[in-house]
Design brief:
Shape of chain B: elongated
Strand content of chain B: 15-25%
Radius of gyration of chain B: 33 Å
Largest sheet of chain A: 6 strands, mixed
Number of domains of chain B: 2
Strand content of chain A: 25-35%
Number of domains of chain A: 1
Largest sheet of chain B: 6 strands, mixed, barrel
CATH class of chain A: Alpha Beta
CATH topology of chain A: Rossmann fold
Number of helices of chain A: 8
Oligomer: heterodimer
Helix content of chain A: 25-40%
Shape of chain A: globular
Strand order of the largest sheet of chain A: 6-7-8-3-9-10
Order of helices and strands of chain B: HHEHHHEEHEHEHEEEHEHEHHHHH
Number of strands of chain B: 10
Structural class of chain B: alpha+beta
Radius of gyration of chain A: 18 Å
Chain lengths: 244, 418
């Protein structure tokens, strides 16, 4: 069954217990994400957007509500089952890159494949392809410390990409980058989305990034307060060209 | 994820911090090297003691005057009385040698000792002089290196001939050429007709230091000590059993003969003691194996300390790499993948340390062997297996806690860890 719905969240709540006090981080969130979307989840800090991303990314589980990923209910799975789903269906890109130090770009990208049980030549081939897709085919053996911030983030995108996930979650991916590299990174996401139809969700408070997507979901105090399409999506590649 | 992959990851993260890995391993290296060295030296001592006891002859029973077991029971007065008694005679020895009465003994040698001064020209040594029988070299497994031992004729005729232990010969004749010379024992001239080969070590009774003369000569020329019946009083009788399995029987037969000859009535204590060579072996075997265990235990403590070092560094490493663990979990590492990763790191540390320790321990024990001279350390496969197994167990035991802490980390918190 494939009706184009990738993620179907219904009435998701997440409550954190701080001692005896229960702090609701998300409350009654319902969200549908379709295959091939390029969207942003926005909101000020404390709005619950990180919690939502953790739940979408299967790093965390909702206290109540249903979450179906590709038609499979994942809201009640065990830790190891969640790990397998993260490995196969989800790619993460973090603000601070989270690359392994003292480890080459290629080995960083191979990491999800090792946990997927892909070995040897196949693993290398796919990792090289992913690095080439983000324009780092010439930097395979460089370590993170030998790469610029933008290049490091591209390695992280290649790592997110390598297992051909259903969705890539990017948490403030440009937060640690200068404007120019940030624009390049957004451009890569746009290209991957346009050319390969990969679903990309940005989690950000930066309206500049949001303007480069087709849909913006706004969160405030754990509730969705807005969900609208972006009428004129900017293309980061054009913007980069225009700035120079 | 398979095991070779995990080992690769472990090696990579260990090589990222080489000095720390090396220092951590050092604890295990020292521990294992100490275990190997001390155990092998302990086993070397065991073998050496065994060889020395074996070298005094095979299947030997020692018969000495006096009741040694009464001595150990604390009855000092009676022991002193009996041990100085002239209770063992040449006649006793001849009775033990009678195959009709003692069928399980095939050869009997006799020895009488005295401490006296032996002189050659201007040299003199104070040493033990033994009067003994012709079959002494054979029974006591003692080879004559130069010349010959005295013959039946020398014995029957009471000839003034002497055979020197190796050290005695070296002391009196530093230039060699002892055979044919004349030495003086208690002022009486003896012709040296042979020199024994060295027994090595300190030995039993210091045979290398002794001077041997015929028993007959000893009791006519050197001492007048006789029993009431005029028989030669001897210090020890060596009875060689026909086989190892017949030693117990031979002991009983000898005891019966001696009790008869000494008129010891039923339930009275013996006035002699029979010592089984096997008993001596067992006693020394026990002592040396206790020594070996003791040495091993001391070494094991240092191995334990090394293991605590591993645990310490692994805990630090888990804390330091919290973000890495978070990331690995985010990209699909399961609990057991993370557990294995850290466990294998601990195991690699301890096993690599173990192998280096085995090599160092082998070198160390050879060094001890060289320095001590007479000792040959014995490294057995079981020692190496023990050390390897022990270091693997240390890695496993001290690695499991840090590894399970890493595996239990929540990926969200771990990713956010600063």
């Amino acid at each position: 069954m494939d009706n184009g719905v990738l993620i179907q969240m219904t009435d998701i709540c997440k409550v954190y217990k701080m001692g005896v006090v229960e702090v609701p981080a998300l409350c009654g969130v319902s969200l549908e994400i379709r295959r091939g979307e390029l969207m942003a989840i926005m909101g000020p800090s404390g709005s619950g957007k990180s919690t939502l991303m953790n739940i979408i990314g299967c790093l965390d589980q909702p206290t109540s509500g249903q979450y179906a990923l590709e038609g499979v209910d994942v809201s009640r799975l065990s830790d190891d089952q969640l790990a397998a789903i993260r490995n196969k269906k989800i790619g993460f890109v973090f603000q601070n890159f989270n690359l392994l130090r003292r480890t080459s770009a290629l080995q960083n990208v191979e990491l999800p494949l090792t946990y997927a049980g892909v070995s040897g030549a196949e693993r290398r081939r796919r990792a090289v392809a992913a690095l080439e897709a983000v324009g780092l085919g010439h930097r395979l053996d460089h370590r993170p410390s030998e790469l610029s911030g933008g290049e490091q983030q591209r390695v992280a995108i290649a790592r997110a990409l390598v297992n051909e996930p259903s969705i890539i979650l990017a948490d403030e991916p440009t937060g640690n980058l200068d404007t120019k590299s940030g624009r390049e990174i957004v451009g890569i996401f746009q290209r991957l989305n346009l050319e390969r139809g990969i679903t990309v969700v940005f989690v950000t408070h930066d309206p500049e990034i949001a303007r480069h997507t087709r849909r913006i979901v706004r969160l405030l105090d754990g509730k969705i307060v807005g969900d609208e399409p972006v009428a004129d999506m900017r293309l980061a590649v054009e913007a980069a060209g225009g700035a120079e | 994820m398979n095991i070779t992959e995990s080992i690769k990851i472990a090696l990579r993260s260990l090589s990222a911090n080489k000095l720390r890995a090396a220092l951590t391993m050092l604890g295990i290296i020292i521990g294992v090297a100490a275990v190997i060295t001390l155990l092998s030296v302990g086993q070397g001592v065991q073998v050496m003691v065994q060889e020395q006891i074996q070298s005094i002859g095979s299947n030997l029973l020692f018969v000495v005057p006096g009741n040694l077991s009464a001595q150990s029971s604390g009855n000092l007065r009676s022991t002193m009385a009996t041990s100085t008694a002239n209770s063992l005679t040449y006649g006793d020895a001849k009775a033990i040698a009678d195959p009709g009465r003692v069928p399980d003994v095939q050869a009997v040698a006799v020895e009488s000792f005295m401490n006296t001064t032996v002189v050659y020209r201007d040299r003199s040594i104070r040493t033990s002089v033994s009067g003994t029988t012709v079959n002494y070299p054979e029974v006591r497994n003692h080879k004559v290196a130069e010349g010959t031992f005295f013959s039946e004729e020398d014995f029957n005729g009471g000839s003034r001939v002497a055979v020197l232990g190796k050290s005695a010969a070296d002391a009196l004749f530093p230039d060699g050429y002892a055979v044919g010379q004349t030495i003086k024992i208690k002022g009486i001239s003896f012709r040296v007709i042979g020199v024994f080969a060295s027994k090595g070590g300190t030995g039993f009774g210091g045979v290398d230091d002794s001077v041997f003369v015929p028993l007959t000569t000893f009791h006519t020329k050197l001492t007048q000590r006789r029993s009431a019946s005029g028989d030669y009083v001897v210090s020890a009788v060596y009875a060689q059993a026909v086989s190892e399995s017949r030693m117990e029987a031979a002991m009983q037969q000898i005891a019966q003969v001696l009790r008869d000859r000494h008129n010891i009535v039923y339930e009275s204590d013996d006035d002699f003691t029979i010592i089984n060579q096997k008993d001596i072996l067992n006693i020394f075997g026990q002592i040396t194996s206790i020594l070996t265990i003791f040495l091993g235990a001391i070494a094991a403590i240092s191995l334990l300390v090394g293991g605590i070092g591993i645990m310490n560094i692994m805990l630090v490493s888990v804390t330091e790499r919290t973000r890495e663990i978070g990331l690995r979990k985010a990209v699909g590492a399961r609990r057991r993948d993370v557990l294995w990763q850290f466990l294998i790191e601990a195991m690699v540390l301890s096993l690599a340390g173990g192998f280096i320790g085995i090599v160092l321990g082998a070198v160390g024990s050879q060094l001890v062997g060289r320095l001590s001279g007479s000792l040959t350390p014995v490294i057995t496969a079981s020692t190496i297996l023990l050390a390897t197994g022990f270091s693997a167990a240390v890695g496993l035991f001290f690695g499991i806690y840090p590894a399970s802490r890493a595996a239990a980390l929540n990926p969200i918190d771990a990713l956010r860890y600063e």
